[in-house]
Amino acid sequence: MAGRHSAKSSKKPMVIICIAVAVVIIAVICAVIFLNSGNSGKTPSNTNTTSATLQTTSIVHSTSSESSETSVQPATAQQSTTQNETFAGETSEVSKVVVPTQGGQQVSYFNATYVPYKAVDSSTNEECSLREVFGSSFSQGVITFNSDGTFADSVTSSSVGSGAYAVEGDAIKATYSNDKNMSVQVLSWDGDTPSELMINYGGYDVYFNM
Q1: Does 79 fall in a domain?
Q2: Residues 87 and 137 in one domain
Q3: pLDDT for 124-159, tens place per residue?
Q4: DSSP letter (8 states) at residue 108
Q5: Three-class SS of residue 192?
Q6: What is the CATH number of the domain that holds 170?
């Protein structure tokens, strides 16, 4: 009887150990499955959401760029066409202007812009204001001479004009596109370019410098 009791007692710890090991293994397997299922459920969702957001942003930017290009290009083309037509008209008119120069004398051209700085009454030799000479149309404008033999006069806002010119000695012979002649006296030079000019406007000597 004592031998049977000891044999039964030695089997019980083995059964308990086996059950405990089996429970631990099952618990580990369940934990691994739970973690894997949790990660696989979250990652695709975030990836898909991010991809969808990036895709939407890309489409919006692309659409905005296309809209901007579409609206700007026609305006630029129209502006270029208008400018070309204007320059072509001015060049055509100036090319017909004949400058009265002395035959056989060499003429020259230059490129410079001049502003009026003083006016003198040629009959009294008294200095006066530029507004007294040009009136309310005086616009702080300039006269520009180009190396291709053309010039532009914007001294007053009421008589903006252009024409052709030629340098003869110390004088500049200029003719507007409306056939009005203008004699410009060169007072000083900077190399081959005049640095100070004097032009008579209706009895007033107006002085210009660069």
Answers
A1: yes
A2: no
A3: 999 999 999 988 888 778 999 999 999 999 998 877
A4: B
A5: coil
A6: 2.40.128.20
Q: Which amino acid is present at 74?
A: P
Domains in the chain, number = 2
This model's pTM is above 0.85 = no
| pLDDT for residue 27 | 85
- Alpha carbon distance 40, 4 (integer Å): 55
User: What CA–CA distance (Å, rounded) separates 114 from 37?
Assistant: 85
Report the alpha-carbon distance of residue 120 to residue 206 in Å, rounded: 6
pLDDT digits (tens, 9 = 90+) for 89-108: 445 556 677 887 766 678 89
Shared domain for 88 and 125, answered yes or no, is no
Residue 154: CB partners within 8 Å, gap ≥ 6? 139, 141, 142, 143, 160
Q: Write down the pLDDT at residue 94.
A: 62
Q: Is residue 106 part of a domain?
A: no
Which of 95, 126, 154 corresponds to the end of one domain?
Answer: 95
Collect all residues with Cβ–Cβ distance below 8 Å to 137 and sequence separation of at least 6. Answer: 156, 157, 158, 159
Pick the last residue of a domain from 64, 95, 126: 95
Percent pLDDT > 90 in the chain is: 37
Backbone torsions φ then ψ of 127, nearest 5 degrees: -75, 140
